[in-house]
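Weekly sync, protein design subgroup
Attendees: M.S., D.O., the rotation student, P.L. (late)

Item 1: inverse folding check
M.S. brought a backbone from last month's batch and wanted to see whether the design step gives back something sensible before we order anything. D.O. pointed out we never logged the input encoding, so this time it goes straight into the notes. Structure tokens as presented (360 positions):
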């Protein structure tokens, strides 16, 4: 037996966000044409997180990131996207890969795509995406969408958000990249199926909920780890400790930590640590709600994007050449100035939107 969701490739759009990009495709599959900036905004995904990965060891002795982690995200953006859009989900994980295979067939036979988590290094190897660092660490947390299976030929058809077209892979090899239990954020055969309503909540509700979550998480963040800092707590920590990185880690880990920052910074066009993407959300929201005040908010985040890009240019230079860029002694005062300007731009953006929420 075999089954393919033939219409799914026509609604897919390339995205560098695995979770939110996959969710955008799923919403479009069910007839809800929300843009990626809108989904990013209403989910309250944008934020800030900072912390040394190696200090997570007491919580997870075998599975930790050796690098310093700096990300532009709030915790659990996909869960909040589900809540705001009123999409119900059913998720399971298991030690038995056979249960995952059975779930794939069951839900595809019901015309429902399945979001599945994979271990990144082995998965990228399977589908032919180059990996810059082959032996760094195994890590889960990446999701793909299953849209087809062929039982006779033992094939699975999946949609990878970074690729234009669906990919057909060997079933057993794919199940192996899902059945990983000894990595950082192990996938453990986790899958999710979505039950999307025929009508989403009013767009005004979704926009205001998303902005409110972003503001709250920056000002009074949810703290789920004692070793990492979120929102303005994390940003302040980053601004005051970033220039100490060369003394806190060896050259290899320093380069890998900077590369992680750079990766997140470049996830969306024009870089800017996703602040430009958030500005696009606010512009779209301004048009939908006919509220020119949101355009002012968008300009504040475009300014924050530009401030981030100044420091990111120096980080990129340091990655390419250890004698240049962000940690060069003669650049120290400039770097601190850029960091301080970033913090000020972030504070202005959040304060403006918080005030707007109060007026609403």
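Designed sequence read out in the meeting:
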């Amino acid at each position: 037996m075999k089954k393919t969701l033939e219409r799914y490739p026509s609604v897919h759009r390339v995205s560098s966000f695995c979770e939110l990009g996959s969710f955008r495709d799923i919403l479009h599959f069910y007839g809800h044409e929300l843009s990626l900036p809108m989904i990013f905004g209403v989910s309250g995904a944008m934020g800030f997180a900072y912390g040394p990965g190696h200090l997570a060891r007491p919580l997870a002795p075998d599975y930790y990131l050796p690098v310093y982690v700096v990300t532009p995200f709030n915790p659990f953006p996909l869960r909040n996207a589900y809540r705001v859009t009123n999409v119900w989900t059913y998720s399971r994980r298991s030690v038995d890969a056979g249960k995952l295979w059975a779930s794939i067939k069951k839900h595809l036979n019901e015309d429902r795509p399945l979001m599945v988590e994979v271990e990144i290094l082995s998965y990228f190897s399977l589908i032919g995406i180059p990996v810059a660092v082959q032996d760094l660490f195994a890590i889960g947390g990446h999701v793909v969408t299953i849209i087809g299976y062929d039982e006779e030929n033992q094939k699975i058809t999946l949609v990878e958000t970074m690729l234009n077209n669906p990919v057909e892979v060997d079933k057993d090899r794919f199940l192996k990249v899902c059945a990983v239990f000894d990595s950082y954020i192990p996938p453990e055969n986790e899958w999710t199926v979505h039950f999307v309503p025929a009508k989403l909540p009013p767009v005004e509700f979704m926009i205001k909920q998303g902005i409110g979550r972003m503001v709250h998480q920056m000002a009074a963040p949810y703290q789920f780890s004692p070793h990492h800092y979120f929102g303005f707590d994390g940003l302040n920590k980053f601004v005051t400790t970033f220039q100490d990185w060369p003394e806190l880690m060896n050259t290899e880990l320093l380069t890998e930590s900077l590369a992680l920052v750079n990766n997140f910074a470049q996830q969306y066009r024009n870089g800017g640590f996703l602040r430009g993407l958030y500005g696009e959300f606010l512009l779209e929201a301004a048009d939908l709600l006919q509220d020119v005040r949101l355009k002012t908010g968008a300009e504040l985040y475009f300014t924050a994007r530009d401030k981030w890009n100044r420091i990111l240019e120096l980080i990129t230079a340091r990655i390419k050449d250890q004698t240049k860029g962000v940690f060069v002694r003669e650049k120290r005062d400039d770097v601190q100035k850029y960091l301080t300007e970033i913090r000020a731009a972030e504070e202005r953006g959040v304060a403006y939107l918080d005030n707007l929420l109060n007026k609403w």
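Discussion: Residues 293-320 form the longest helix (28 residues). Confidence is low (pLDDT under 50) at residues 57-63.
Action: P.L. to compare against the previous round before Friday.
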